[in-house]
Amino acid sequence: MRTQRTRTTDRRRPDRRAIAALVARDLTAVRRSKAVVVPMLAVPTLLMIVLPLVVGLAARGGDQGGTLFIDALPAALADPIRALPPDQRLVTLVLGYLLAPLFLIVPLMVSAVLAADAFAGEKERRTLETLLHLPVDDRDLFLAKLLTAFLPAVAVSWGGFAAFVIVADAVSWSVVDGPLVPNRLWMVVIVWVAPAVAALGLGIMVRISARARTAQEANQLGGAVILPLIFVAVGQATGLLLVRIEVAVAIGAVVWAMAALLIWRGAVRFTRDRVAAQV
User: Fold this and answer.
1) 189 vs 127: CA distance, rounded Å
2) 77-92: per-residue pLDDT in tens?
């Protein structure tokens, strides 16, 4: 009966009011969960505020220890740095390029944490049965769970980047005589690529959460998939700041396409019965 109802409503437009109500409900539950909120805020604060402040102060005006390091870098990165005055090289390298991986780790990490809690957390809090009996289409329920993870991940990433810009420019202003970040390429990475990375992570983790019995189990199962993505993000983030804007936009489009495929496949396979069978 339920399966027939789901099939006959698949062609309808999403119920925005129902989705908004579910998102508001889930965000309230997230705010009340210290196990979710603490890592979601503490780690980005450490990575995007404390670390840039400490590293930036240490690198400001330093060139003696950085010359050998710069010489060991690939030419595409080292040549623009060598063109700068000596006292600007290390701080520009560290704050302008080397800390770039942080901005792809954060959305991926936050979306994974929240997506792991999407259904597994409901099981732990014993609220899943109530959720599954709500008069909401399966598709709308799935979309609501996605948005509950995606919106905070993007908000934390953009808020963290704004804080990083303030910290980085405050530390480097007296050395470079102006703002160091952001530039147009930085904005493409933050506004276009970072949300795509968040969507890719949650497209994986929501499906895992629906199968797991606890949020801890979901994190353990998802770690096998998310950790390689984090390593790829770390390896490629600095390179994104060395390519042309068109290339960065194209890379973001590829990530969005992968995320859309995962989310679409997850939405097609998602049913209440499958989630309930895992309880």
Assistant:
1) 38
2) 778 888 888 878 888 8
